[in-house]
Amino acid sequence: MPENLQEHGCRIYGIKNCDTMRKAFVWLKAQGVAHEFVDYRKPGVAEARLPDWNRRVGWEMLLNTRGLTWKKLTDDERAHVDEAGALALMARYPTLIRRPLLDTGKHLLVGFDAERYARELCS
After folding, report:
1. How far is 59 from 11, CA to CA, in rounded Å?
2. Is 18 tagged catalytic?
3. 5-121: CATH topology
4. Can you give the pTM of this predicted structure?
């Protein structure tokens, strides 16, 4: 996909077998929004992009503390999560990253929100 995503759709990061991802895929298809899916569990994908994502939305927004991966972490791993610790954990366990992450080129949208998607992608 070309780097200028505004003209050519968006890139959506996450994992395929996730209910929230499915909702996003359905919405994108229904709106005719071109998109490229990137599985951030592939080696190096999350680690390479985390610094940019963190700069754009902050680690607190990225870190999924409600999912099974978070619950499976040790008490020590969860105890003192700061920026560096959170980024290291997300690089090690990409499923700790909230999903979907939708990169429009201009904005990084975290989670699925049909109204925000419409504002950012259809206007």
Report:
1. 20
2. yes
3. Glutaredoxin (3.40.30)
4. 0.88
